[in-house]
Each structure stands twice: as structure tokens, then as C-alpha cells.
Amino acid sequence: MDPVARSRNEEALHLSAPDVEALFAAYNSLLDKLEPLCVPLPGPTREYELYFEQCEVNAVNDMWRSEGIEGVTRVWGDERKVEGSLSLSCDGRAYLHIIEFARGEGQNEKGAKYFRRRAFEAAPSFTAEFLEAVQSTGLYDRLVPERDSISGFEVRSAPITSVKCVASWYGPENMYGNGVEINVHVGLQVAPDQNIDLRITLLRDAHVHVSLFDPLLYETGYEGHDHKVAPITVPSLRALLPVLSKVPEMTPDDSKGDVIGAWRGATLSPS
Q1: 110-119, 178-187, 236-245 — which is least confidently predicted?
Q2: DSSP characters for 174-237?
Q3: Which residue, 15, 67, 122, 149, could crosslink 126 as a Cys pair with Cβ 3.0–4.6 Å?
Q4: What pLDDT digit, counting tens, does each position of 30-42 carry?
């Protein structure tokens, strides 16, 4: 191609490309659109204990892993429930502390101004389009590890089991910043009975943060591992925006509440 023709082609490409400022303005507009959709976290409404014999603890943990804490409360809740606050017992039993949460109840007004969130049900078509956009622009190769550095699981070849979109809003007094970020949680099956989350977060400052989250490693302070952060390039944002613009139109995952549980460690006998 002669230099004049090349110059004209480059000029045409430049003129047809979306204005960069407009592109990032559209990104910020999308985040602003998600802010009013974010709601306060459910507040605690009820607490109680479930008691178990020490020989039952492993069976409870197996149920917890396979069906969640809801499975534990469904199977043993009515039979083993001890209402109210319980001081650490010396009867030799193991006690599981249960807290039930309900949306719209027990909300702390200051907390609602500090952090809010909203989860959305992602359709399979969104999953395919989102991953295609991330992979085709090189973000996936730059940020997603081939192997889990802790457990050694293959990450990139693991089958996808679920995808959830979460919009998180951080109030002006929050140390993590002011405004909305979009989180895409991709569930990966890394073993027949084990899933981990590939968490891709698009930040307000036009950066993308990727990490792995293993529920089996969960403990106080654990925020995932294999963290990487990179700027969202113009080509990446151009590919991602049409996909991300579908998030506000998704069906909110509005469960009425949640349940969490924790063993009272002092009541567990050493194995």
C-alpha cells in the first residue's frame, strides 16, 4: 500500500473510532445507573444454636459443604434448636451458632450510607459475551492465572458452573472509595466436588481487578488470592460496554434473606 493510501486509511480509522472521553463517560454513566439499584445488606433478625454430638460434626460439615448452611438447618434445625444466647456449654456437645438475616429489617442507617449492593441473575448469553470480550482483548490472558497458586487447580480450562453479576456501592465515608463497581463472579468446577470463584471486578477508576476465591479457604480476613490489577484499555472498554450495559436490565437476585453459621470453637473436641 502506498504511503498516501495508508495515511488515508489511518485517518479514516481514527475518525470512525469512538471518542475516548465519550467512551469513558458512557462507562461512568453505566456505573451511575447502577447506584440506585444497590440496596442495604439484610440485617440480622434471629440467632440460635444447634447442638450436636461430637461424632456428628463431620456429617454436619459434609452437609454444609454440599448443600450450604441452609441444608444443615433444614435437616437438623427443628430437632436440635436452642433458642436465645447460649454461654459456652460444658455438656460435651458441639454447638453451631446460626444467624438469620432478612432484607429490609434490622438495617443500620449509617451502614446503609456506607455500603450497598445488588446481585443479578446472569443469562448464559451474557456469560458467553462477557468472556468473549475479556478474552478477545487480552485482559483474560494478562490477569487470569493458568493455575491456582495455592491449590494447583487448572483455572482456564475449568468448566463454568455459574455466573453472577454484583453491583457494589461504596459511600463517600468508605475507605474503599466512592461509587459503584461491577463484579462478575464466574464459578469454576476445579474438582468433582469443589468449585472456586473467578472474580472479575471493573472499578470506578477504569481498572479491572481479578482474583480467585475458594470457599474452602474462607476465614476471617480472607479476600481471595492470586490478585492482579490492570487498566481497562480503550479496546477492552469498547468491547465490554455493550455487554455490561445489560446488567441494569437483568433480573435482581432478591432473596428475602440469608443464613450464616459458625461453630463455637470451644465446644469442639480435638479430632
Answers
A1: 110-119
A2: STT-SEEEEEEEEEEEEETTEEEEEEEEE-TTSEEEEEEE-GGG--TT---EEEEEEE--HHHH
A3: 122
A4: 999 999 999 887 7
Q: Grid coordinates in use for 194?
A: 469443589
Cβ–Cβ under 8 Å, residues 184 and 244: no
Q: DSSP string covering 42-85, please? A: PEEEEEEEEEE-GGGHHHHHHHHHHHHHHHHHHHHHHHHEEES-
The rounded distance, in Å, linking the Cα atoms of 143 and 94 is 43
What does each C-alpha distance from 109 to 117, 174, 230 come to in angstroms? 15, 14, 35
Nearest to 64 by CA among 267, 265, 263, 257: 263
